[in-house]
Amino acid sequence: MGSESMVRVKIPATTANFGPGFDCLGASLGLYNYIDMEFSDAPKVYVKGEGVEEIPLDKTNLVYQAAAKVLKRANVNKDLKIVLENHIPLARGLGSSAACIVGGLMAANHLIGDIFENSELLKIATEMEGHPDNVVPAAFGGFCLSMIYENKIIYKTFPMPFWLKFVVCIPDFELKTEDARKILPEEINFKDAVFNISRTAMLVAAMAQGDLSNMDIFCQDRLHQPFRSQLIPGMEKILATVREKGAFAGFLSGSGPTVVCLTLRERADALGEHMVDIFSRAGIKSCYKVLSSDSEGVKFL
Ligand SMILES: Nc1ncnc2c1ncn2[C@@H]1O[C@H](COP(=O)(O)OP(=O)(O)O)[C@@H](O)[C@H]1O
Ligand SMILES: N[C@@H](CCOP(=O)(O)O)C(=O)O
Q: Ligand 2 pocket check: which of 15, 18, 25, 131 to mutate, most ligand atoms within 8 Å of Cβ?
């Protein structure tokens, strides 16, 4: 394929971990960032939407950094003009950094004629992000299983039930993944490992079959949520009550602070209002969005 003079890509938000699948499960959501990229006589970054006041407009910008890695590897010594239209809120557990990294890598690769394979880009993306569970669904869409093996990323992806809705309740404070990882223990006990692997196995089979019965049990976790709850007032109460309010299950989205629950369209708004109310009683302002799953991942427009 020849190179393009200008590239526009759409990249989805993601919800990583999906309950018990710490660093290995994730799903792609119908909320998108857009990146326009072209070669330029000087580095330029323009931002609209989420993060407009905090995102750097120079080469330190995360999208620019990802794109520059591809250009460097291809020995292309040129600057870029990048325009970002952001709808994924920053540092809320909805994969904003993975969207930047995957979008930046894939857009730059397209600009130079798609010379690198996706497997190569995925490896770079995972190195930059630190774990594969957001970057895989951001790139390919759907419900994703991923792992790092001998410096390669191995993954599986399949579509989620079309009728499934994700109600994401987004607190108005940022929690950087880097900080939310510092709070995790170095070791866990054997019983907790069995608790999580049994639920992860059941969860994957249930999603593959589109059978959401017992999903509240399969989404339980002992590897990260119990430790991160101290950073997110109201989270535990939300997770303890969404089932009785009509959700199949609830869990922390990525490293938080967003809490997500799985439900049907007709129950979604009541659940969203319930989550906002509990956060508010815990002194946290929040808003909710009702999202569909995404099945495409990165799309060139
Ligand atoms: N559109 C963007 N442009 C540049 N940097 C971004 C953008 N979105 C996110 N980032 C960077 O990623 C960081 C958030 O990443 P992270 O802590 O992993 O949270 P999450 O990926 O869950 O949103 C932000 O603080 C910012 O540095
Ligand atoms: N497995 C990671 C996922 C982080 O997701 P993010 O959307 O918060 O960046 C973790 O739990 O640390």
A: 131
- Determine, yes or no, domain membership for 1: no
Instruction: Let me know whether 116 and 221 are in one domain.
Output: no
Report, as ranges of residue numbers, the positions in the chain whose pLDDT lies below 70.
1-3
Number of domains in the chain: 2
Secondary structure class of 11 (helix, strand, coil)? strand
209 plus 254 within the same structural domain: yes
The annotated binding site is made up of 89-99
Residue matched to tokens 């039930």: 161
Neighbours of 256 (CB within 10 A): 23
Q: What is the pLDDT of residue 81?
A: 98
Q: Residue 129 CA: which ligand 2 atom is closest?
A: 9
| Residue 93 beta carbon below 6 angstroms from any ligand 1 atom | yes
Domain membership of residue 261 (yes or no) is yes
ipTM confidence score: 0.99
Q: Which residues does residue 35 pair with via DSSP β-bridges, in sequence order?
A: 9, 84
Domain that holds residue 143: 6-159+295-300
User: Residues 130, 215: one domain?
Assistant: no
Write down the pLDDT at residue 22: 98
Alpha-carbon gap, residue 274 to 290, rounded angstroms: 13
* Same domain, yes or no: 153 and 18: yes
Rounded to whole angstroms, what are the CA distances from 86 to 10, 63, 219? 10, 12, 29
121 and 214 housed in the same domain: no
Task: Specify the pLDDT at position 4.
Answer: 72
Total-model pTM: 0.97
Judgement on whether residues 115 and 260 belong to the same structural domain of the protein:
no
